[in-house]
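Sample intake sheet
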Amino acid sequence: MELLLCQIIRHVQEGMPELSVVDENYGQLENLSQPDTDMYPLTFPAVLIDLQEATWSNTADNCQKGTVRVCVQLLIDCYDDTHATSGTMEAVRQRAAVAERLHALLQGYRPMQDGRLVRANPEHGTKPCPKTQKAPPYTQKAPPQPSVGELKNCAKLFLL
């Protein structure tokens, strides 16, 4: 399974070199709000990849075939004010174009020349970035936090 994950990470990095981080998802986004957690910094844009589950069946020749759920998460800074009259709606199009490029790169990809990735159950959304600092006690409210545009693209890989 590690080889599968490494090949998908390499494929995304080679196909989208403008990404700041392409890595295994081990909780980096969730840990942004944990100042005592020792992790490498998460910079954007980023893609985090997680092999979530595998189901295996035996074949007649003492081998196995299986289906693996691969979850690919695209994380993008959303600093732009993109309301209808802002004049910066282009930022929405740019973020959508990055998501489409990632999908095109992964849809049908055959890691290890076996099976292929097929999109299943995509989730789209913009979520507030976890707070990275607490407001000092003398301020009335915390400084605004950037949002993180997030696209979870879960694919099923059929290994034969």
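Comment: The radius of gyration is 19 Å. Confidence is low (pLDDT under 50) at residues 131-147, 156-160.
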